[in-house]
Amino acid sequence: MNDKVDDRDQWLFNLELSTAMAMLVANGATQVLYKELPPNANSKNQVYMAPDLSDLSRIPSGSVIAQSSYSSKTGQNEFVFHSPLDMYWITCTGTVSKAPEAKLIFYPQYPEVRMSGFLKGARYAPSTFFDKEKLGTIPDRVLLLGLTDRQTIVALVVPPESPAARQIKEEQPHEAYGALRVLPMDSSNSDADDYLTLLNALAGIHRSGWNDSIRLDGRGIVVPCRATNCNGNTLEALLGIRSNGIALPDFHGWEIKARGVTNSEKPGSSVVTLFTPEPDGGTYVSNGFHTFMHDYGHEAHKNGSRTNFGGIYKVGTAIKANKKLRLDLHGYDRHSQTYRPDGAVVMINSENEVAMSWSFSKLLDHWKSKHAKAAFVPSQVLRSDTPKYRFGRRILLGTGAEFGRLLTSLANGDVYYDPGIKLEHSIQGRSRSKKRSQFRVKSGDLEALYARFAEVDVISE
Predict the structure, then answer these.
(1) I want to staple 357 with a disulfide (CB 3.0 to 4.6 A). Which of 15, 260, 282, 413 is the partner?
(2) Is pLDDT at 189 greater than 80 in this prediction?
(3) What is the CATH number of the domain that holds 92?
């Protein structure tokens, strides 16, 4: 028995890969990622995962929070992003032990994402293989992360001489995912499988021609869509996607966006709504919606029955004559294209007071989940008493949506704020509000948001 190995970790030296996979699956894993750990991945150093949080959208993680952290590299406190993990270590009996402090930490100044805190407070964590005084510096230890449909992570680590580690090495290469690899499972799809599934589904929708304006309700029942612009709802319904407010990719890991065009067979330029996040700061939040509309909205009817707040706002432009606010970025350096995690996208008035703000942590939280892989599908409308839509074969695909790219596009004025907010007043004194804070971009400017971008014909492909 190796005197450097804790007794409860000895079993991992003899673990077969088939047994490890069975234990992960028994605890809910539907996908398995792994990383061969270098000598510097130990209890004193965090495990490197990827250059950006958007590269890890498969990994279930909690809300992103900006926090101040001491950097040993600079000797100063720096703001970083934390995203908690609901993580559990598998024990020799097949049960699990929670790692209550596990988290992803995103350091945008480098940039890099690391996993941290996975040993702290975890009673049955395999600490032998992370302790520098034991086996925490040996190369080729293998960390296995099982991702479950419950948005949890179940984990194992095996030493390089174990049957499991040897078999993984023999079967390489495996598909890359950030700084990790994908360990094939019989029931799991690879990125290539998801890509082909997407193309096949969109090819079928294109061949179906004109479709009634519909949506799937929360129960999965097809119902008519009565809104003025239901192209996105109709496309999602045809893909089997239910209406929901969940900030997760729509279809096999892909975010699906319909973009309205005049002719779906020859799609030209269009405007795409990227996302519609509510502000989490400014007087919009502190003083309330009604006060905000009183201060910054304008009467849309002479009788005062409706107040609107709209217009197009781009970073770098002054307050327009008929408006009271302008868009800006706080905590973003245009010259170096770097940003502070405590920054925000803001709407400010002539006194530089913040009327609305979207913290970088809030926007990143959405961006990492929804836009890692996105498909933009051309849609054409046939307007009548019952509108119909048809969807084109030439789609735009973007992957690698680093958050910094979004901020750079905002700073350049390519991504802009185009709200459609209104407050209706009835004779009885009641009011009805519509809150829609849209961030939009022209289709010709989409490419700058992604590391990889292409137009694909779903029929010929």
Answers:
(1) 282
(2) no
(3) 2.40.330
- Assess whether pLDDT exceeds 80 at residue 301: no
Angle between helices 403-411 and 360-370 (to 10 degrees): 120
In this prediction, residue 1 carries a pLDDT of 45
Same-domain pairing of 138 and 195: no
Same domain assignment for residues 49 and 17: yes
Instruction: Tell whether 408 is covered by a domain.
Output: yes
Which of 183, 218, 245 is the last residue before a domain boundary? Answer: 183
350 and 217 co-located in one domain: yes
Q: What is the mean pLDDT of the chain?
A: 91
Q: Torsions phi, psi of 122, nearest 5? A: -95, 105
Contacts of 251 (CB under 8 A, 6+ apart): 198, 201, 239, 241
CB 214, CB 234: distance < 8 Å: yes
> Residue 336 maps to which CATH number?
3.40.210.20
Do the domain assignments include residue 2? Answer: no
Contact assessment for residue 379 and residue 258, using Cβ atoms and an 8 Å cutoff: yes
Q: Report yes or no: 364 and 350 within 8 Å, Cβ to Cβ.
A: no
337 contacts 408 by C-beta, under 8 angstroms = yes
388 alpha-carbon distance from chain centroid: 31
Mean pLDDT of all residues in 186-214: 87
Does residue 155 contact residue 118 with C-beta atoms inside 8 Å?
Answer: yes
Distances, alpha carbon 153 to alpha carbons 79, 82, 137, 267, 360, in Å: 26, 17, 24, 42, 26
Tell me if 48 is assigned to some domain: yes
Query: In the chain, what is the straight-line distance between the N-terminal and C-terminal CA atoms, in Å?
Result: 56
DSSP state of 251: B
Q: Is the pLDDT of residue 76 over 80?
A: no
Dist. CA 450–CA 373, nearest whole Å: 9
Helix (H, G, I), strand (E, B) or coil at 449: helix
H/E element, 285: helix 283-286
Same domain, 326 and 411: yes
Strands 29-37 and 103-107, by their bridges, are: unpaired
pLDDT for 245 equals 54
Do residues 159 and 213 both lie within one domain? no
Token readout for 124 is 């049955």
Split into its structural domains, the chain has a count of 2
Can you give the pTM of this predicted structure? Answer: 0.84
- Domain region containing 20: 7-183
Whether the per-residue pLDDT at 249 is higher than 70: the answer is no
Give the pLDDT confidence score for residue 191 in this predicted structure: 72
**Planar angle of CA 373, 376, 379, nearest 5 degrees:** 155
